[in-house]
Each structure stands twice: as C-alpha cells, then as structure tokens.
Amino acid sequence: MVEKIPLTYQEALELLDNDEFTIIAGGTDLMVQKRGWGSSLPDFTTNTLFIKHIKELDYIIKDKHYIKVGALTTLTSLLENEHIPSIYKDALFEMASVGIRNEATIAGNIENASPAGDSLPVLYSLDAVVVLESVNGIREIPIIEYITGVRRTVRHSNELIKEVKIPFTRYTHKKWVKVGGRRADAISKISFVGLAEIENGTVLDLRISFGAVSPIVIRKRSFELQYIGMTVAELKEQSIMLTQLYNDLINPIDDQRSNKEYRRLVSLNILKDFIGEL
C-alpha cells in the first residue's frame, strides 16, 4: 500500500486517474471505521490519498444563485460564515464536538453516506448539488441522487468532490430536531428538517426530510407538492393524511441506540408538531 500527499488539486486528480485510493481529509469518521482491534491506529488495506491541505478546495462563495462550498471547508467554517442558511447552522451546532467540527469537512460528511449523518437531511431539504471532478471533466448531481445506500454514493473512483452548491432557499418557518443520547456529540436516533414558506396564509413551499429512520434520508418532493398552494388551515386539516404518507416511507431499524417503533412514533410526532406550528 502507498500513501500519497499531492501538492495541488490537479495532482490529486491525476493520481486518482492512475490508481485507486482511499481519500482522507478530516478523517473524523473514516479513522474510526478503519481503526484496528486493540489499537488506536487506523488499518487501511488500500492506497491512501491525503488531501486536507489542498487550499484550493477550502472556500465559501456566494453568487447569484448558489452558495458554493469547497469540498474541504470545515463544519466550523460553515458555522461561522454569514452566507450559510440558518437551518444548516442549527444542525451543525449540534454535530459532534468543537474539535471534530474543526476537522470534519462538508465533503467527508456527505461521502460518508451515513443514515444518521446530521447534515444530510438539511442538505436534502435545501436541494444541494454535489459537484464531482476528474481529469475527464465535471459532473453535477443533486444530493438526493448522490447517496444510494448506507456508505454508498455514485462517485467514481477517479473523481473528487470539488464543491457543494446550495441554492438560495426562501423559508419563513423552519424546524430542526435531533433526537440522540445527548444534544450534541452523539449519533442521531432521529433527525428532522422542516421548511415552509408561508405568505398571507398560503403555503408557497414545503420541504420535509427525515434522517436515521431509513438507509438513506427520506425526502419526497411529490408529497410536498400536494400541499403547496393550500392555505395553512387546509394543510393542518390534512396533517393526518400527510403523516400517513410518511409513515409508509419510514423504515427504521432496531439497534443499540433505539428501537424501530420508537423511531417511527417520534418521527411522526415531530412532523405533526411542525405542521401545527405553522
């Protein structure tokens, strides 16, 4: 096995085009996954590519349509930036410890593709787009299509995440809920994001995402569209029907953190609370 530390982003792309590597940036999840039994040292069985030092991928830029976040931007940098949506900051504030947030990157959090990844339901609700690059060119993939299963994404082995594009999103109401063993620095049992744009009592937009209750984040735009254009009163009248739609999608598991029936019940109660608060 070889270890490579490219000096530039272009060099990293060229290395990936010639061989397969495990890519390491902050390593806050990866190092734990690869830790060997009886040792605190990670046990990698593949070539490793260290990219955390590549400054070309550390930026936050606002343009006319998007907030563009470089792949190696840390969670702390996101929290401290004025352009990052408040709902995203709500989630980031409850993610991990300060030390972990100082190292963990936006790309690593996405590529880890954990069902319990706290930032993922927010990025789904914000219609984030993952920008991949290789020596052959660039691909842009909506995050809802990017993650295909537990720790599975559509990234090819010769590609790097270059940036994440977050479209500007209008909302007048927001709700972020994380249910865990403690408020922060804990793996989620359930996470929920609700966004709504209400004007003169009419629902102009509605976005709902659940984390940690399915192999991938649950968001269903076709469900949301059924309620856009209704009055808030009409939406509340149909809240039972809305929760039933999501009940059929939620597919939690039993594990050491919680059981599936608790996850289902609490998830639907949080959704009811969000609708009731509009």
Textual characterization of the structure:
It is built from 12 helices and 13 strands. 32% of the residues lie in helices and 26% in strands. The chain is globular, with a radius of gyration of 19 Å. Helix 11 runs antiparallel to helix 12 (260-277). The chain has helices spanning 9-18, 30-33, 75-80, 86-93, 98-103, 106-111, 120-125, 143-146, 221-225, 232-237, 239-247, 260-277, and strands at 3-4, 22-24, 48-50, 60-62, 66-70, 129-134, 137-142, 147-149, 152-153, 160-167, 173-180, 188-199, 202-211. The model has no long low-confidence stretch (mean pLDDT 90). A 5-stranded antiparallel sheet has the order 4-5-10-6-7. A 3-stranded parallel sheet has the order 1-3-2, with no helix packed on it. A 3-stranded antiparallel sheet has the order 11-12-13, with helices on both faces. By secondary structure, the protein is an alpha+beta fold. The N and C termini lie far apart (55 Å). It has 2 domains: 3-167, Uridine Diphospho-n-acetylenolpyruvylglucosamine Reductase, domain 3 (2-Layer Sandwich), CATH 3.30.465.10; 173-277, CO dehydrogenase flavoprotein, C-terminal domain (Enolase-like, domain 1), CATH 3.30.390.50.
